[in-house]
């Protein structure tokens, strides 16, 4: 049974949200992005972990908890047009972590807090980490596109094409 409140008919140029994604047509191309509600939901969840649960827990504990939430969300959205959204969420996380550090050490300078919690690892600066855990950087997550299927090919007549496609897909998932 379809809900009367949730169903609506819209033009594809206006776009619609479905399963955490926004589907919209731009200049004759369908673009699928993470929806704003999904991004806000992740930001609220991370804010709760950092600013509420993080006050009483150690840095390692809430980095571990944040990584679980971030990896799950990014694995769901890494197949669509999401690099700008990942960058926006990364900036939001950075600001929340600064608030957490400021709350933890209100009498210390900004540079002291930066030196204490953000380090350089493998030639990458500004990494929020401890000896045990490193926070996931959303800008370093690769967007993985699905290879397009040629509609004119059939699995029964063009078995070489499907064999090559199958091998290419295995190489992509192994990487």
Description:
Helix 1 (36-53) runs antiparallel to helix 2 and helix 1 runs parallel beside helix 3. The radius of gyration is 21 Å and the shape is extended. Strand 4 and strand 5 form a beta hairpin. The protein is built from five helices and five strands; from the N terminus they run βββααααββα. It has two domains: 36-140, no CATH class; 145-175. The longest helix has 22 residues, at 83-104. The strands form two sheets. It has a three-stranded antiparallel β-sheet. Strands 4-5 form a two-stranded antiparallel ribbon. By secondary structure, the chain is of the alpha+beta class.
Could you name the key traits of this structure?
175 residues, alpha+beta, 2 domains, 3-stranded antiparallel β-sheet, two-stranded antiparallel ribbon, 5 helices
């Amino acid at each position: 049974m379809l809900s009367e409140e949730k169903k609506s008919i819209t033009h594809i140029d206006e776009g619609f949200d479905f399963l955490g994604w926004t589907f919209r047509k731009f200049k004759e191309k369908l673009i699928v992005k993470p929806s704003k509600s999904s991004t806000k939901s992740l930001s609220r969840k991370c804010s709760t972990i950092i600013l509420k649960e993080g006050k009483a827990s150690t840095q390692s504990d809430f980095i571990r908890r944040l990584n679980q939430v971030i990896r799950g969300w990014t694995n769901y959205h890494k197949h669509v047009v999401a690099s700008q959204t990942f960058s926006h969420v990364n900036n939001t996380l950075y600001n929340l972590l600064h608030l957490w550090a400021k709350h933890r050490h209100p009498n210390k300078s900004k540079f002291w807090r930066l030196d204490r919690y953000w380090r350089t690892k493998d030639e990458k600066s500004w990494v929020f980490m401890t000896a045990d855990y490193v926070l996931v950087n959303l800008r370093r997550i690769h967007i993985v596109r699905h290879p397009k299927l040629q509609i004119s090919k059939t699995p029964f007549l063009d078995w070489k094409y499907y064999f090559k496609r199958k091998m290419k897909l295995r190489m992509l998932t192994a990487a």
